Amino acid sequence: MDSWGTRPKRVAVIGGGLVGSLNACFLAKRNFQVDVYEAREDIRVAQLARGRSINLALSHRGRQALKALGLEDQIVSQGIPMRARMIHSFSGKKSAIPYGTKSQYILSISRTNLNKDLLTAVERYPNAKVYFGHRLLTCNLEEGTITVLGSDKVPTDVTYDLIVGCDGAYSTVRSFLMKKPRFDYSQQYIPHGYMELTIPPRDGDFAMEPNYLHIWPRNTFMMIALPNKNKTFTCTLFMPFEDFEKLQTSRDVLDFFHKHFPDAVPLMGEQALARDFFLLPAQAMISVKCSPFHFKSRCMLMGDAAHAIVPFFGQGMNAGFEDCLVFDELMEKFNNDLSVCLPEFSRFRIPDDHAVSDLSMYNYVEVTFSRIRYHEAVLRWRWQKKVINKGFFLFGTLVAIGSAYLLLRSTAPRRLDYLRGPWDWVTSLQHSLKTPWSL
Amino acid sequence: MDSWGTRPKRVAVIGGGLVGSLNACFLAKRNFQVDVYEAREDIRVAQLARGRSINLALSHRGRQALKALGLEDQIVSQGIPMRARMIHSFSGKKSAIPYGTKSQYILSISRTNLNKDLLTAVERYPNAKVYFGHRLLTCNLEEGTITVLGSDKVPTDVTYDLIVGCDGAYSTVRSFLMKKPRFDYSQQYIPHGYMELTIPPRDGDFAMEPNYLHIWPRNTFMMIALPNKNKTFTCTLFMPFEDFEKLQTSRDVLDFFHKHFPDAVPLMGEQALARDFFLLPAQAMISVKCSPFHFKSRCMLMGDAAHAIVPFFGQGMNAGFEDCLVFDELMEKFNNDLSVCLPEFSRFRIPDDHAVSDLSMYNYVEVTFSRIRYHEAVLRWRWQKKVINKGFFLFGTLVAIGSAYLLLRSTAPRRLDYLRGPWDWVTSLQHSLKTPWSL
């Protein structure tokens, strides 16, 4: 018998993506009766269209969450260690900038494979079940009742003790929380879009050095490439939408790449590049913040549903995984008492998730795409933090801001004394956060 | 025949409140076929429950919009001029601080009466019709089709050339815009709530000087009182929710008022105060920003639906009315071409509406409820503007911020040289904006 009484509590996890499936494992391990509702079909059996996900970089926080479930070794064995960034200059010159000490690295991970493994891990719990092809229609948060639509197209009501929204940046669960009084929310699209391209293997091996995160920084745009197990690289081009729109023909695309990424063109292949560029339009990137993350003891948000962030800090999945771990630790501490753990999760976690969101946006604005001098960036960051205290997100960000501010005050100026390369400041921040990050 | 061809274009205005009904007049005057959908019953015939609206202060911008429709004189004649603030100190001492020159004043207006007059004005246009008791269910923004539910409880689809969301801070129209790509949005609740109370007439006349906006500034909370035509005052108490919650009994309430507003208690009457305080709970205040305000040539937002602001700048209704006037001026300039006027309205108006939102929030945070020294407030404001440029609302606020920044740089420090009373800085800002404001 579990600690809360005779009937196992029932939990609905909305979304069977990375955070949803990981969370389902944590909850199942605590003897909840867990139902996961995923709108898509089972990715382990369905033939997928070309994905639209930015490559994943698994780092310390994400690994700690996997470790708590005994999944770390399995997942890590399928990743490719990236021990440094490899900066590609215009001239084709390459220079490596390590992430940290020799033993520190981040892992390039396939989103699809990771998701498959996590779904399989969920299904190993006899008290957990995944309902694929089930879409959430409505949520009654007061009652804990959800209405889902399965393949039979008959809306079905089910009542749960807890509803966990892990349904991503465009969360349906969150849209019901938004209707509750005093729920703060913001969504912001950045002017950049992203597009994924491929560098195929060359002579059966990686076409570039595999154990690096390759970066072509180009002021207002940039390209990165992460290695895959099949010896390809997935390239992601980040560029303002208005610049994407200028590239209308194959000729435009090839001219653009020859001009800005001359060393990448022969690796991608002109023909493949000119074709792949038009397979999918550039995708938008959204930054979402909200507060609180919960409603009474009935409903909570985790992962992108709670805090979708722009990808320039390499922490999206890692922050989502850490959400699950933090909640699990609270459940341990407070003996699975949902009426304590949900408000405590909001109180404790929102400052951190808002901070990682601010850091990601800050990095996007000040570091990645601007040429602002770094000491100015630090000064601006401090002021930004001080000021955002006052204006936006009055509730919740205070602690986040405070910590980030103290953190920067204590470490950044010191590090700035021996600034050498363009990523050093970034590296110092990464050290301060005690986690490597991907860009 | 109108300028765009033979068939008059059809417009649905969602919401028959202040901005909706004013906008319907503007559009009807341009020979659109206008249908206004209002969820409530006709306030001119229905017996209303006690209102939940903060008192209105009509100022220059609002009057200009009414003037363009020939309604200014009628509305102004029903208002009560307030030529100065009357500050009530703890000791009961009163000091007047004029809004500007002797000829400058703002008007205390009854929201209900104004709304009634505007609805009657709409119905004077033969090409306009108001559907009361009609609730918007869904919007197909691509097609211009709305589904409304009238008293017959049968959902009805109607297709329009243009859908104008004037449905307030919790806009349903906006919720459909939010689902469109790259729509930026934020909603933020402030920690203060508000509650309306009454000072009845005394011996058949106003119990205090009528031509003032009375203010009891009390650091973290404050009360204001605006005069009504029936010789009552409507008082509004602004206070953190957590402080409201401390007042649980009539005794608590009377003790609190005797302590903080000793001169107001005999005017309100102990018995009435102790009763009225518990009639309605304290109401929340939300600040909403979004961008863009339009979708293609099909849909747009105006008033609180586009930019609900906190009331501490006295500009909510005035900004909404000016939206209508600005759009009308664009329609005049661009010959009623919706495909030009809608994007132009977003481009032109968003910076101003975001600026008034920032000024309102800024005033709430820095001036109204804090004891920060004013020159610090100015410095912070500048930094805030500079920094928010970078982080939040990348699109659109740039111009707003720039103007506010230039404005403050050009006027505030100079004015600070002869700072005398607590509202002078605020007065200087008001002069800079060339409009009086209410607090």
UniProtKB/TrEMBL annotation, chains A, B:
SUPFAM superfamilies: FAD/NAD(P)-binding domain. It is a multi-pass membrane protein. It comes from the Eukaryota. It is found in: Mitochondrion outer membrane. It catalyses: L-kynurenine + NADPH + O2 + H(+) = 3-hydroxy-L-kynurenine + NADP(+) + H2O. The chain crosses the membrane at residues 391-408. Keywords: FAD, Flavoprotein, Membrane, Mitochondrion, Mitochondrion outer membrane, Monooxygenase, NADP, Oxidoreductase, Pyridine nucleotide biosynthesis, Transmembrane, Transmembrane helix. This is Kynurenine 3-monooxygenase.
